[in-house]
UniProtKB/TrEMBL annotation:
SUPFAM superfamilies: Aromatic compound dioxygenase
InterPro entries: 1_2-CTD_multi_dom (IPR043029), Catechol_dOase_N (IPR007535), Cchol_dOase_actb (IPR012800), Intradiol_dOase_C (IPR000627), Intradiol_dOase_core (IPR015889), Intradiol_RC_Dioxygenase (IPR050770)
This enzyme's EC code(s): 1.13.11.1
Occurrences of domain Intradiol ring-cleavage dioxygenases (ranges): 135-163
Organism, scientific name: Saccharopolyspora montiporae
Gene3D superfamilies for this protein: Aromatic compound dioxygenase (2.60.130.10), Catechol 1,2-dioxygenase multimerisation domain-like (6.10.10.40)
Key word Glycosyltransferase present: no
PROSITE patterns in the record: INTRADIOL_DIOXYGENAS (PS00083)
Pfam families: Dioxygenase_C (PF00775), Dioxygenase_N (PF04444)
Designated name of the protein: Catechol 1,2-dioxygenase
Gene Ontology biological-process annotations: catechol-containing compound metabolic process
Length: 282
């Protein structure tokens, strides 16, 4: 068999990997009977309401049934939920934070990335393509006090929009790392700028997008989870000002506070983006 490359990525393979990752995480919290009753009843009633208001036909009902079955067959429930639903869950979960804004985690986080020092280069291929990026900043608490030894977990797509462990042919931890900030809470992470991410066209989510006449894109982004002892972990994404789809993210996960302003580095060899994180007490 010839070696597969990231261009051979399929919706079903990345869906299966994302589904397995989610199931391995375990810990789906037990939800009380009262909450399940209330939430399930209201979701079902909301669907009934749409059917009545729009006079949904049996053909449309069967198309929905076929599509829902296909979402499961393709393993695309994590992708579907994280693209179309998670942003509101995140909004509600973090509405009382004083510190940095969060954003959705998405389906492609993997715990246990290589641990790296405060001044670090993410694991990447010798010939990794893309504009070099120095991503630097400082982690503080809400009073401005430095948080020495904070952890910045970072993961992002490559210059073609693919994530390691969710597309074939990529080194396991490519463009993923867990950086420990220095004694002032500072970090300097060398990587490359990711490309925008396109929802796979060959799966159920892609089918919905084309059937609805939507576009399939998320703007280029860096994912982070920033944490420090005694403080709440924040999950966020950072975007690049002026980039494609920053104003038009299919996952609706962009916030103005999360847009980086990269500047050309002094040596002309890439960009530098500076961004600080403020963690709420736990
Ligand atoms: C992504 O890269 C992502 O971050 C989200 C939220 C959904 C799909 C792909
Ligand atoms: Fe992503």
């Amino acid at each position: 068999m010839t070696q597969l490359s990231e261009y051979d990525a399929t919706a079903a393979a990345s869906g299966a990997a994302a589904t397995k990752r989610f199931q391995d995480k375990g810990g789906a919290a037990s939800t009380s009977t009262e909450r399940v009753d209330m939430l399930a009843t209201e979701v079902v009633e909301a669907v009934h309401d749409v059917i009545r208001r729009h006079k949904v036909t049996y053909e449309e009902y069967d198309a929905l049934k076929a599509w829902l079955i296909q979402v499961g067959a393709d393993g695309e429930w994590p992708l579907f939920l994280d693209v179309w639903i998670e942003h509101v869950v995140e909004e509600v979960a973090n509405e009382n934070r004083e510190g940095s804004k969060g954003s959705i985690e998405g389906p492609y986080y993997v715990p246990g990335a290589p641990e790296l020092p405060a001044d670090a280069t993410l694991p990447m291929r010798d010939d990794e393509q893309g504009t070099p990026l120095l991503f630097q900043g400082q982690v503080t608490d809400v009073s401005g006090a430095e948080l020495p030894g904070a952890t910045i977990e970072i993961w992002h797509a490559d210059d073609h929009g693919f994530y390691s462990q969710y597309a074939p042919g990529l080194p396991e931890w490519n463009l993923r790392g867990a950086v420990t900030a220095d004694e002032h809470g500072r970090f300097r992470i060398t990587t490359i700028q990711p490309a925008p991410y396109e929802i796979p066209k060959d799966g159920a989510c892609g089918k919905l997008i084309s059937a609805a006449g939507w576009h399939a894109w998320r703007p280029a982004h860096l994912h982070v989870k920033v944490s420090a002892p005694g403080h709440q972990l924040i999950t966020a994404q950072l975007y690049f000002r002026g980039g494609d789809y920053v104003d038009n993210d299919i996952a609706q996960a962009v916030k103005p506070e999360l847009i980086l302003d990269p500047v050309a580095s002094a040596d002309g060899g890439g960009n530098v983006a500076t961004h600080d994180f403020v963690l709420d007490p736990s």
